[in-house]
Amino acid sequence: MLFTGDTDGLEEVFAAYLREPEHMDRIVTEAYLVVQSERCFHDGVRVPEDVFTMIRAWAEREKKPEFLPVICQIALTKRFSEKRLLSAADTELAEQMLDSLYKQGLLFAYMKKLGRFMPLPAELADKTLIEYRGDADVSTEIGFRILPQEKDKPMTFTEMPHVFRGIYVKPVLLFADEKLEYEVRTVSGKTVETVDHGWVSLNAEAEPRENRFTHLNRILAESSDMSGEDWRDELLAFGREDVLLKEYFNVH
């Protein structure tokens, strides 16, 4: 069943398998966890919580969580991102796995939610991630514009980065009061088809705490309630901590 792709009744069969520990085989158990991780992440199937408990136990046994199959690391960190609270042990494990995935160039939208529990790499913490799930073998492009300043500007389309098994992710930098309009399209020969489109705005309340752009967005959002001198002082203080100030504001 695990090696044929037939997953009907998989949980029941595996539960029966666990009732006979003398016949248990590590390879079979790990294959089960890989299949369930695939179903959870790729197919959106709700799998039993014991799957994640067993992946955690597997990581503890290996001592180095990055040695687990990538799909298991993805499934577990996604599950962590959905929780309201994480234990210290789970936070440490999530951080190790996130670091491993990030170093492999694997960025997914769910990872932003992990910023509630730990500092994130700058590319995750500072940017909004647009994610599209399609076909890895089909050329996929994304076009976008920042509103309101680019409302009269036509979208310029570029190749959308393919991250993992048909999942495409484009990181985009947004500031307070900005809205991003985007369109995803596939290109096959002369056929161009729009497969996704929408708008994204920055939700500061959902952003990780350890995020320099959250800080900057708060300054921008509060600027109307501050005197010009107070606003300038806080902006300059921010600039002393972050060279990005010189790139986005003409403050000397």
Characterise the protein shown here:
The structure is a single chain. The chain is an alpha+beta fold. It folds into three domains: 10-117; 126-203, Immunoglobulin-like (Sandwich), CATH 2.60.40; 211-248. Helix content is 41%, strand content 19%. The chain is built from nine helices and seven strands, in the order H-H-H-H-H-H-E-E-E-E-E-E-E-H-H-H. It has helices at residues 10-18, 26-43, 49-62, 70-81, 88-103, 122-125, 212-222, 228-241, 244-248, and strands at residues 128-133, 139-147, 156-159, 162-164, 167-172, 179-188, 191-201. A four-stranded antiparallel sheet has the order 3-2-6-7, with no helix packed on it. Strand 4 and strand 5 (167-172) form a beta hairpin. The longest helix is centred in the first third of the chain and has 18 residues, at 26-43. It is globular.
Q: Strand sequence of the main sheet, in spatial order?
A: 3-2-6-7
Low-pLDDT ranges: 240-252
Number of helical elements:
9
The major beta sheet can be summarized as:
4 strands, antiparallel
Supply the helix-strand structural class. alpha+beta
> In angstroms, what separates the terminal alpha carbons?
67 Å
Shape: globular
* Total domain count: 3
Features:
3-stranded antiparallel sheet, 252 residues, Immunoglobulin-like, alpha+beta, 9 helices, 3 domains, 4-stranded antiparallel sheet
Write the layout of secondary structure elements.
Blueprint: H1 10-18, H2 26-43, H3 49-62, H4 70-81, H5 88-103, H6 122-125, E1 128-133, E2 139-147, E3 156-159, E4 162-164, E5 167-172, E6 179-188, E7 191-201, H7 212-222, H8 228-241, H9 244-248
Antiparallel strand pairs: 1-5, 2-3, 2-6, 4-5, 6-7
Helix pairs in contact: 2-3, 2-4, 4-5, 7-8
